[in-house]
Write a structure and sequence with these properties.
Blueprint lengths: L1 H14 L6 E6 L9 H10 L11 E5 L2 E5 L11 E5 L11 E2 L18 E6 L4 E6 L2 E2 L6 E2 L4 E6 L4 E7 L11 E8 L6 E7 L4 E6 L4 E6 L11 E4 L2 E4 L5 E6 L9 E6 L4 E6 H4 L12 E6 L6 E6 L4 E6 L4 E6 L9 E6 L7 E6 L4 E6 L2 H6 L9 E7 H5 L15 H9 L5 H9 L66
Antiparallel strand pairs: 1-28, 2-3, 3-4, 4-5, 6-7, 7-10, 8-9, 10-11, 12-13, 13-14, 14-15, 16-17, 18-19, 19-20, 20-21, 22-23, 23-24, 24-25, 26-27, 27-28
Bound molecules: 2-acetamido-2-deoxy-beta-D-glucopyranose (2 copies).
């Protein structure tokens, strides 16, 4: 009898645990670091900190920082942009530290502070791209405290190096923007950012070089009215109006442009457009047919976030299935070519953001958002989790695995390079055409340029190639702890070689 029970519990444990994704951090409720206990007590007493109101929604890893964003949907959120120092002694439920500071996160200080931030993205030039949507509260109780403003930080100095307020024409009355994708060219100046307007059904492009934005509209940005019914974690609800949401740029193609993949949240269909169109303001009109239908992921594949790696494999959060899915863009997008890379009916409830870092680790955050919004979280249990796994481990054994990585030898790229003498071909390879085998997970501070002086047009990518050279041992540097061991490990495995 005892033996039988034991086996039963064992099976349950296996059935409700991620296999490939390793749980790194988890929280019942979030908390913040304050400079001292007095200030923290004061924040608790005045309601500046109400821990139960905080829901983490976005992540990004840059070197020794894991950024975590928390929208100001309710009062008591001391900072909307935060990080966890990855080189600190391991704490399974770390308190958040505001980035760049408490002051830089002041609600309603439009010029200097961030009010509400959703997804964030770091680039190869060590800049962090952050859209402050400027809102306080949540539908239907939302106030636009500040205008939509893009804020870009130099991650070496933690200084904001640009603030760009969206033009009134970029926004409509129903605008809601959560997602950002970057389109990195050959120089730091040649960077575009794209923002999906979920409820205004638009796509906004921003050019770093021109410091200018423009807005595309398209019927492919609309929700599919047939799939507005959601069932997540035992809750049934209807999100029928949710349009273009998850967006991600693929690797650079032979023509020197990337493909921006996108899907409405209320849809199972994937669409795409070349960045050749998006980068060109004049294409705002007359480009209807440049937007393409890629295919269908199949039933129950509402997705909140997606990311594509340099080999053209896309990972996406699957909120109906408590899972992360994959698709290799070398194959037709149809249900047979979509696989789950991991699934967990407890831990992965509402996978909310997926990112790939420079070391080809995949980071996933799950946050039970649907329960938070449509019902109530139980703070007696774990609600928020951050997972990590090497990219190639995740796709191993699935239809998405790239045996022969897609290596492109773009002709146009070389033309670009000759116009940009600072940029030679080893660098080119390091951007997007590196086969997965030659990525090394380690990027030591020594091998990347440390100062990013003032973003002049002379700036080129840091010399990442030296850290990517050229060990054909993709799996060796990755070390997986057993699930118990990482709690006592002072040097977490994902940093062991890195810093
Ligand atoms: C809207 O905000 C007001 C003021 O903060 C609050 O009293 C009210 O309960 C909120 N309503 C909803 C539906 O959240
Ligand atoms: C970019 O545009 C914004 C307007 O939103 C302006 O305030 C800022 O000074 C500009 N920055 C640069 C570097 O031109």
């Amino acid at each position: 009898m005892v033996g039988k029970l034991f086996i039963l519990f064992g099976l349950i444990a296996v059935a409700s645990a991620t296999v490939k994704l390793q749980e790194m951090f988890s929280w019942n409720v979030l908390d913040w670091n304050y400079p001292d206990q007095y200030l923290k007590q004061q924040a608790l007493q005045t309601g500046a900190l109400i821990r139960e109101n905080a829901l983490p929604v976005g992540i990004e890893r840059w070197r020794n920082k894991l950024f975590v964003s928390v929208p100001r949907w309710q009062p008591g959120i001391p900072a909307t942009l935060n990080y966890i120092p990855l080189d600190a002694p391991y704490d399974p439920s770390p308190k958040l530290t505001p980035y760049p500071s408490f002051k830089g996160n002041e609600l309603g200080d439009c010029e200097n502070g961030l009010t509400t931030v959703y997804r964030i993205k770091a680039d190869k030039c060590d800049r962090l791209w952050v859209l402050d949507v400027g809102t306080y509260g949540y539908d239907p109780n939302v106030t636009n405290v500040c205008p939509y403003a893009l804020n870009v930080y130099d991650l070496h100095t933690d200084q904001r190096i640009r603030r760009y307020v969206f033009r009134p024409e970029d926004i409509v009355s129903s605008t809601f923007i959560a997602n950002i994708a970057l389109d990195e060219g050959l120089t730091c100046d040649d960077t575009f950012a794209y923002f999906s307007d979920e409820l205004g059904y638009g796509l906004i492009a921003y050019s770093w070089e021109q410091n200018k934005s423009w807005r595309f509209s398209h019927s492919y940005f609309m929700p599919d009215p047939l799939v507005g019914d959601f069932n997540i974690a035992g809750l049934n609800f209807q999100w029928g109006a949710e349009g273009i949401f998850g967006i991600s740029a693929g690797p650079m193609g032979a023509d020197g442009y990337r493909t921006l993949y996108f899907s409405p949240l209320t849809s199972f269909t994937e669409f795409a457009v070349s960045t050749r169109i998006l980068r060109d303001e004049s294409k705002v009109k007359g480009s209807y047919r440049d937007f393409k239908v890629v295919g269908s992921r199949g039933r129950d594949t509402h997705t909140t976030a997606k990311v594509m790696d340099s080999t053209g494999v896309q990972l996406f959060a699957l909120i109906d299935q408590n899972a992360v899915g994959c698709w290799n863009s070398a194959l037709t997008l149809k249900p047979q070519n979509v696989a789950l890379v991991d699934k967990d009916d407890v831990g992965l409830i509402f996978p909310c953001d997926v990112k790939i870092d420079d070391s080809r680790n995949v980071w996933v955050i799950s946050d039970r958002m649907s329960t938070f919004l449509e019902s109530e979280l139980n703070y007696g249990e774990i609600n928020f989790r951050i997972y990590v796994a090497p990219f190639d481990k995740l796709t191993e054994g699935t239809v998405c695995e790239t045996n022969a990585p897609v290596v492109q030898t773009p002709k146009l790229l070389l033309n670009y390079a000759s116009q940009t003498p600072l940029y030679n071909s080893p660098h080119l390879e390091s951007i997007s055409q590196i086969p997965s085998e030659i990525f090394l997970p380690a990027t030591s501070p020594k091998t990347s340029t440390t100062s990013f002086n003032s973003f002049s047009s002379k700036n080129i990518y840091p010399k990442v190639s030296s850290s990517l050279r050229f060990s054909k041992q993709p799996s060796q540097p990755y070390y997986f702890p057993s699930s118990q061991s990482h709690t006592s490990n002072k040097n977490p495995w994902w940093l062991q070689n890195n810093y």
